[in-house]
Amino acid sequence: MMETKGLRTEEFMVNMGPQHPSTHGVCKLVLKMDGELVKEIQPHVGYLHRSIEKIAENRTYAQIVPFTDRIDYCASMNSNHAYVEAVERMAEVEVPERAQYLRVIMAELNRIASHLLWLATFTIDLGAVTPFLYAFREREEIMDMFEMTCGQRLTYNYMKIGGVNWDIPKEFVPKAKQFLKILPGKVDEYEDLLTNNPILLYRTKGIGVLSSEKAIEYSASGPSIRASGVRWDIRKAEPYAVYDKFDFNIPVRYNGDVWDRYKIRLDEMRESAKIVEQAIDGLPEGDIAKKVPMTWKPKEGEVFCRIEAPRGEMAYHIISDGTNKPYRVKIRTGSFCNLQLLPAIATNHLIADLVAIFGSLDIVLPEVDR
Amino acid sequence: MDSESLLNHINELHKDIIINSELITDVPTIEVKPEHWVEVCSSLKKDVKTNLHSISNYGAVDYREKLGGFQLVLTIFSHKHKHRVTVKTLVPAQGDEEPEIDTVTTVWLSADWFEREIIELFGVKFKGHPDPRHLMLDDDWDEGFPLRRGWTGTDFIVKPEM
């Protein structure tokens, strides 16, 4: 309760959401406010709960792939990748090398697209409209590349068990090379606009600090934990696909505030561009998929497999009972754990800062609800 | 420490408690009785050689028909040693029973939402959970526990065999 010279404010409750422009999807935050100060946050999720885990129990292994697109629609390639990688690891399916390279190219391009989308929405949350248009301009190029490969712009259904569904068309490589040539310059442009912009600094520096201990305690992952000084990237720590063949860095920052989480995603875009470049240069010839029959039945067993998605660790725990449908599929996503720590870092901040903090965690609600 | 020596170390640590241990796709996996669930979990977090501070995944599996209960599968992970371990336990249950087990939110804060999800979707209760409200489902949901095998709801139709 704040007391200032005879004026008394009372605590009151505010429903932020479910339909709120800065919650990026449908998430309700029940806030206990003291004036402008947020005293307590209670996230309410589940508005987008489609129970993909239940649906998966009633579909064959191949039929589940399109559903994984809908888990994180901003990074469908990565969601696909996590699932097919898990199934292949469980059933010991060998994937042709060209398919592995194509998967890495698509996953990294999607990571760039996802970070661009994040940059666009994050800056618009803070009131800067121009970077939104800039970021969408570059994202459009990536969408074009995906469209020419698999005909879709949002939910790609590109990967399948044993490989990928389509090979890249011949226009893809020149377009990708052209894009990778301009991307670092464009990221510099965003940095010119934003990084040392006094308004952005004022809104982000020292706001929503997530210490490394807290990040570990709350099982944070992805850029959110790397901005808190924990060097943890599954692409390096437990290389999957062909990530061990590429030379790239893991950007790490140590303050754990909103600004660090902003900066780290810009750095990651540059690193992802490096990976795509190497993968395109080293792209081997050959098959794009191993033939897996439609009525395929993996042997009994289980697997726990995780990959680094743009929003953190995405993991599948799949149990097979020897039939053509999985017995159980448990999906763990980065946003689920990252949203859980929001009350821990955003209480006792101003409500305007809450918007910045929420934006900086890069939550995608369908990924939380599944 | 590689997976095998980690598994040996954990086996050594809880000699009389672990009922089953194996390597599943190179992840050390142990199974304990429900009464030792919290004890084993907190010691795995505290032990300097394991130091499993983060939750990687935490879910339940409906094994009522096969094993007579719900299996909790908890994959935990150490940022310090870069290794992970899966701990399993079987909470006995038959039919519509709603069994109960101790919560591990006392060990890991991030277990909170994972357990809330298990409570509403599987009907496994957690003794001592700080906030056992529904997470995904409506507050007034009364159509049972959707992730149990054989559950059918108003809108859910099991797809016919192909």
Architecture overview:
- The complex is a heterodimer of chains A (370) and B (162).
- Chain A has a single domain (48-332, 354-369), classed as Cytochrome-c3 Hydrogenase, chain B (Orthogonal Bundle).
- Helices cover 47% and strands 15% of the residues of chain A.
- Chain A is built from 15 helices and 10 strands.
- In chain A, a hairpin with a 2-residue loop joins strand 1 and strand 2.
- The radius of gyration of chain A is 21 Å and the shape is globular.
- In chain B, 20% of the residues lie in helices and 29% in strands.
- In chain B, the strands form 2 sheets. In chain B, strands 1-2-5-4-3 form a 5-stranded mixed β-sheet. Chain B has a two-stranded parallel sheet with strand order 6-7.
- Chain B is globular.
- The chains are: A alpha+beta (370), B alpha/beta (162).
- At the A-B interface, strand 8, strand 9, strand 10 and helix 12 of A face strand 3, strand 4 and helix 3 of B.
Helix-strand blueprint:
The complex is a heterodimer of chains A (370) and B (162).
Chain A: E1 3-4, E2 7-8, E3 11-16, E4 28-34, E5 37-44, H1 52-56, H2 61-69, H3 76-91, H4 97-125, H5 130-150, E6 159-160, E7 163-164, H6 172-194, H7 198-204, H8 212-217, H9 223-226, H10 234-237, H11 258-281, E8 301-309, E9 312-320, E10 326-332, H12 334-340, H13 342-346, H14 351-360, H15 365-369
Antiparallel strand pairs in A: 1-2, 3-4, 4-5, 6-7, 8-9, 9-10
Helix pairs in contact in A: 2-3, 3-4, 4-5, 4-11, 4-14, 5-6, 6-11
Chain B: H1 3-13, E1 20-24, E2 27-32, H2 37-46, E3 54-63, E4 69-78, E5 83-92, E6 100-102, H3 111-122, E7 125-127
Parallel strand pairs in B: 2-5, 6-7
Antiparallel strand pairs in B: 1-2, 3-4, 4-5
Tags for this model:
heterodimer; A: 370 residues; alpha+beta; Cytochrome-c3 Hydrogenase, chain B; three-stranded antiparallel β-sheet; 15 helices; globular; B: 162 residues; alpha/beta; Beta Polymerase, domain 2; two-stranded parallel ribbon; 29% strand
Give the amount of beta strand of chain B, in percent. Answer: 25-35%
State the CATH architecture of the domain at 3-96 in chain B.
Answer: 2-Layer Sandwich
Name the average pLDDT of chain B. 83
Q: Supply the CATH class of chain A.
A: Mainly Alpha
Could you name the CATH topology of the domain at 3-96 in chain B? Answer: Beta Polymerase, domain 2
Give a quick account of the main beta sheet of chain B: strands, pairing sense, barrel closure.
5 strands, mixed
Q: Kindly state the number of beta strands of chain A.
A: 10
Return the structural class of chain A: alpha+beta
* Outline type of chain B: globular
CA gyration radius of chain A, whole angstroms: 21 Å
Shape of chain A: globular
Total of DSSP H or I helical runs spanning 4+ residues of chain A: 15
The structure class of chain B reads: alpha/beta
In helices, the fraction of residues of chain A equals 40-55%
- Beta strand % of chain A: 5-15%
User: Mean of the pLDDT scores of chain A?
Assistant: 87
